[in-house]
Amino acid sequence: MDSIRAHLKFFFSEKIEIEECHALSTASSALTASTFDSAIIDMSIHSHEPEAGAGSPFPLSSGGLDVLFEIEHSGSSTSCIILTQYPDIEIEGLPIPVKRAQQEILEKFGIKVAGCVRYVEDDNQWKAEVTSILEKL
């Protein structure tokens, strides 16, 4: 999250408001309460926020799709970028390579995403790809 935040602040010359959601329910609530120009979505979003006594959050392999559905059904014009650390995105139980996921999501669900990027911490390729997508928005 720190690397993503730093890159976005650099790209937007610090003129950006970032709202972080670490869980599906938090993201859904934020999307209902506010309007966003864009969203960066981790396809494996967590089940719930880490809280004392709430048990460990676990990644929901298709939780990011739920966030996309929420945005789509709200009628929002929020542009979405999928950013994931995994080489594949699970769509309807099948692993789809990140490079093919954008087209697959459009074909299967009619949802247009601005792009799908694989995040690798020690590789700046994700930054170049996210920058390219943001420049087109």
List keywords for this structure.
137 residues; 5 strands; alpha/beta; globular; two-stranded antiparallel sheet
What is the structure about, briefly put?
Helix content is about 40%, strand content about 15%. With about 140 residues, the chain is α/β, with parallel strands linked by helices.
Report the β-strand fraction as a percent range: 15-25%
Ends distance: 22 Å
Tally the beta strands: 5
Radius of gyration: 15 Å
Number of helices: 5
Structure in words:
- The chain is of the alpha/beta class and 137 residues long.
- 41% of the residues lie in helices and 16% in strands.
- The strands form two sheets. A three-stranded parallel beta sheet has the order 1-2-5, sandwiched between helices. The chain has a two-stranded antiparallel ribbon with strand order 3-4.
- Helix 2 packs parallel to helix 3.
- The protein is globular and about 40 Å long.
